[in-house]
Amino acid sequence: MPPKTVEQQRFLQIETRIHLHACIHACNEIKTLGFTWDSKLTFKKHVNEISMKMHAAVRSLYSLRPFISQAALHMVVTAQCLSIINYMCMIWGGASTKVLRTVEKSIRACARSILLTAKYGPVHTQITDTLHWLMPKYLYQHATLFFWA
To answer: Which of 109, 105, 127, 106 lies closest to 118, judged by CA?
Structure first.
């Protein structure tokens, strides 16, 4: 069936001029703008990278803990770690609960470094009440509502 409008004719002319002289291969993951997409869209690879970055940031701050106040430490950890989490949380925030648990563990580690609690001490209520942070599930909901508002 021939194209009916002038726009359709131009589109067909442009489309026929494109020639690829290379093979396009499928890959399991791709990284764009710092975000790692996997082929099954589980976001597991990206969440693991987030977790590693956060743990590295927290470890680098352990030596500063005796020398700065809790308020200053809270500000530094919030700036370093939560900026990593907030980046593209609208995309990876809808991942499975199992995948999001990795980020939750990292958030708890950050909170323990600020609150000076033991490694396995409970900090969930202090994260929301004292530090005013959101867990990944609620962060995703907040970002989604903020975007659509």
So the answer is: 109
Q: What is the pLDDT of residues 42-81, one digit of tens each?
A: 999 999 999 999 999 999 988 888 899 999 999 999 999 9
Q: Two tokens at 132?
A: 């005013």
Give the other-Cβ count within 10 Å of 106's Cβ: 23
Q: Of 83, 90, 78, 11, which is closest to residue 43 (Cα–Cα)? A: 90
- Reported as half-sphere exposure (CB side, CA atoms, 13 A), residue 128 has a value of 10
- Give the pLDDT score at 126: 93
User: How far apart are the C-alpha atoms of 149 and 145, rounded to whole Å?
Assistant: 6
Which residue type does 94 have? G
Q: Tokens for 134?
A: 């959101």
CA 111 to chain centre: 18
In three-state form (DSSP H/G/I as H, E/B as E, the rest C), the secondary structure along 19-42 is: CCCCCCCCCCEEEECCEEEECCCC
Token pair 């996997």 is at which residue? Answer: 38
